[in-house]
Amino acid sequence: MSTSPDATHGADRPTADSRAVVERELTRLMRRARASSARIAADVHPDLDAAAYAVLVAIVDLAAASTAGVHAALLAEAVGLHKSTMSRNLAQLEQLGLIERVTDPTDARARLLRLTPLGEESVERSRRGRRERLSAQLGDWSDADLRRLGTLLGRLNDSIS
Fold first, then answer.
1. What local confidence, expressed as pLDDT, does residue 2 receive?
2. Beta bridge partners of 112
């Protein structure tokens, strides 16, 4: 059981109604996220599909821990894709000039994946656009509400990972 101040105790235990509200709102959020995936991918490159965009973002996230690049096996595990699906997505990203394969400096037999300068610029441009849209959509929210939402989303992500 969590020892955070937000941990549930006694009368604060979640009810079936509160769990149903969360499930319904998460379903709405995921449905909207799926619907916007193609638009977000197109922000990076007009020929990029949503599945390859998810792989691209995973490379960005995983590469934050290593400047050299990311092993494809680690990427596949993080994204949860079958090897053949991952291979197709990587081929598309490479063909569009968004990623490149480089030799692993610690093992010359291995290859790493990393963003190209075009990939970095395209992802950053897309993220700026998403932040601007989010800022407009949540413009009437207070800073305290946004911080609370961020905290709760982080907690949710930690709970379901």
1. 47
2. 102
- Residue 73's pLDDT is 87
Each residue's pLDDT tens digit, 76-123: 888 888 888 899 999 999 999 999 999 988 888 989 999 999 999 999
SS3 assignment, position 8: coil
Secondary structure (3-state) at 145: helix
Query: Alpha carbon of 136 to those of 40, 79, 98, 145: distances in Å?
Result: 16, 30, 28, 15
Task: For residue 1, give the 3-state DSSP assignment.
Answer: coil
| CA-based nearest residue to 103, from 73, 68, 75, 74 | 68
**Tokens encoding 78:** 């993080």
Q: Give dist(CA 147, CA 100) in Å, integer.
A: 36
Res. 64 pLDDT band, cuts 50 70 90: confident
The H or E element spanning position 4 is none
